[in-house]
């Protein structure tokens, strides 16, 4: 009887650990997805800034050099 209780408690403990690890894994995955989205937004902003710079500064200088 005591042995059965210990076995049941051990199974419950292992089940609780498994549930906790699954929940923690899910939370980390959601954080990663959010961070990945933010990183993508940052990349797009940097690209946009660079393209605007090239369009405003670099191309007009090249056009002036070609005309001269």
- Main sheet specs: none
Using the CA coordinates, give the radius of gyration. Answer: 29 Å
H-E order: H
In the predicted model, the low-confidence regions spanning at least 5 consecutive residues are none
Q: Given the structure, what is the number of helices?
A: 1
Shape: rod-shaped
Percent helix range: over 70%
Mean pLDDT: 89
Q: Count the strands?
A: 0
Structural class: mainly alpha
Strand content: under 5%
Terminus-to-terminus distance: 99 Å
Can you describe what's shown?
By secondary structure, the protein is mostly helical. It has a domain at 29-68. The chain is 97% helix and 0% strand. It is built from one helix and no strands. The protein has one helix at residues 2-67. It is rod-shaped. The N and C termini lie far apart (99 Å). The mean pLDDT is 89.
List the helices and strands and how they pair.
Elements: H1 2-67
Name some characteristics of this structure.
rod-shaped; 68 residues; mainly alpha
Sum this structure up briefly.
With 68 residues, this protein is mostly helical.
């Amino acid at each position: 009887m005591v042995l059965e209780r210990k076995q049941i408690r051990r199974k419950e403990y292992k089940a609780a650990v498994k549930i906790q690890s699954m929940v923690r894994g899910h939370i980390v995955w959601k954080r990663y997805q959010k961070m990945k989205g933010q990183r993508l937004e940052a990349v797009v902003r940097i690209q946009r800034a660079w393209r605007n710079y090239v369009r405003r500064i670099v191309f007009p200088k090249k056009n002036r050099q070609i005309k001269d």
